[in-house]
């Protein structure tokens, strides 16, 4: 194909002796097209100042590659070579300037200050003027098929490029030290190293070529220039990493997408080298296969990412809803606390007056009235207990439950509770026994506890056993285990028992066994929950054991002995 | 994209376009540049340049005599760039300048091949 473009056969043969044409095409066209595609893709996905700057860098670099390649192809005609050669330095400076511009915007998220723009443009201006006037080239050297450069004029851009590199490094170092956010610091470092390497590759290659040409150190000095172009793929790798990892430029690029594009570009680039038809066909097949598999891979990965993003969004919504629910729960607890406080006062009055009437303090009453008032008293007492449970629950949930710890004898406390519950025990007709181990009546079971709260727990456990034991016996046992400094209180009954499936939920809020509902319709399912919370606050343990429904149950309360 | 960077880009594009268009006009359309080229020289009556090498030591040694031509590209015949002109003489009234070998004109790696009647 190139043969049809040859205008000067001498220069074509000269070039063939100098460097493989495939290498020239590969080193210039692949970075140029990849850079153009990347810059255009980023600009298409995110139209902002940053992507705009990146596109200018990529476009200027690609134009530089095309100009430089045309300069190499002097067989196209000396006029074409002179034209393209005269412009390369200018476009080089354009992407050096925009690299600095890009990095500044990337780091600070702000536009480049006007003074920086003016300084940059003033620095580039002499090259613009010299290029316009054609002062950078003196003639076309027909013997070597290359343009002759004006040494003074063509050295100037190297100084400016060096200054831009120093500016880029200073910018990165300054902001890297200044920025505190670790993620942004990492981004700055990656972008800075990428841009720095890109410019350094380019600068060092072109400078070396210039020195080698001036000192005639090697025969084909310009051959070294192509190595500078590999700085662009290095920059693109850094930028692609920033896009994939940090969603830089606000572009969501899936890692698989980047890999597939890179793979397709590499396979496509093979065409530059391939000489025979068989290899060309094989490469076409490979390229098509890579495109098809790549398409499905990217599609699947995108689908997975979309699902993941949906789940992440749902999780975020759930978290918000949960926070809202917690707030509502707190408000509910506050309301319940307020409402139950308001209920307690009239209940106390009802209970008090019913008691006074029954005891004859308000005058003599008939048996029927006594029975009726007795029911009022019992109902108000039940209601007061329910209100107390709700109050305790709301205190626990609001974290306002107050404990007043003291050293006390647990045996005395249990005897006190049994004394208060004696009328109920007598009324139930159950055989009742209290025993201790050691059995010595003088033995003391000292613990560190809130007397009223613990009394409530013990009363709850004994009262439950009375309520849920229609017939049989009730046995209260207090055991002291001196070696491990624990005291265990237990209440064993021959009552309705507990089904195995209910056992794990027994101490949860509002949980009541089905057989418990039949036995006692007034239960709230809060007593054991409150008891557990109180015992936990005492650093103790509460649990129940039962062989199943109808086989009785034993409730245990374990506390630490006081020192 | 705010207004300032767009203005800057428009300015840069305009400047670059001006440079490109003017250079294209000068180099490609008007071929307004100098061409340095070596062309055939007859040592029997011209003072020619010859590469300073020895065919016995270097296989690529080409000791074809040549003279140096500096000519405006617009006036140069294609055979000159192809190094295929049998004879080329600068025409009077053109920009063409032919350099023949002399002590002043010699560059590194060159020697002179003088006509027989010259010392």
Summarize the entry for a quick read.
The complex is a heterodimer of chains A (563) and B (119). With 563 residues, chain A is α+β, with helices and mostly antiparallel strands.
What does this protein structure show overall?
The complex is a heterodimer of chains A (563) and B (119). Chain A has 15 helices and nine strands. In chain A, the strands form three sheets. In chain A, strands 4-6-7-9-8 form a five-stranded mixed sheet. Chain A has a two-stranded antiparallel sheet with strand order 1-2. The N and C termini of chain A lie far apart (100 Å). In chain A, a hairpin with a 4-residue loop joins β1 (137-141) and β2. Chain A has helices spanning 9-18, 21-45, 49-72, 78-108, 114-133, 151-178, 182-214, 231-246, 255-269, 277-358, 367-398, 410-428, 451-467, 514-519, 527-537, and strands spanning 137-141, 146-149, 405-409, 431-437, 446-450, 473-481, 486-493, 541-546, 553-560. Chain B is α+β, with helices and mostly antiparallel strands and 119 residues long. Chain B has a three-stranded antiparallel sheet, with no helix packed on it. Chain B is elongated and about 70 Å long. The A-B interface holds A 8-11, 47-49, 52-53, 56, 78-80, 82-83, 86-87, 90-91, 94, 111, 117, 128, 131-132, 134, 137-143, 148 and B 1-2, 4-5, 8-9, 12, 15-16, 18-20, 22-24, 26-28, 31-38, 70, 73, 78, 80-84.
N/C terminus separation of chain B: 76 Å
Radius of gyration of chain A from CA coordinates: 45 Å
Low-confidence spans of chain B: none
Shape verdict of chain B: elongated
Structural class of chain B: alpha+beta
Q: Strands of the largest sheet of chain B, in order across it?
A: 1-3-4
Estimated helix fraction of chain B: 25-40%
The proportion of strand residues of chain B reads: 15-25%
Gap between N and C termini of chain A, in Å? Answer: 100 Å
Query: How do the helices and strands follow one another from N- to C-terminus of chain B?
Result: HEEEHEE
Please describe the biggest sheet of chain A, giving its number of strands, its sense, and whether it closes into a barrel: 5 strands, mixed
Shape of chain A from CA axes?
rod-shaped
Main sheet of chain B, how many strands, which sense, barrel? 3 strands, antiparallel
Oligomer: heterodimer
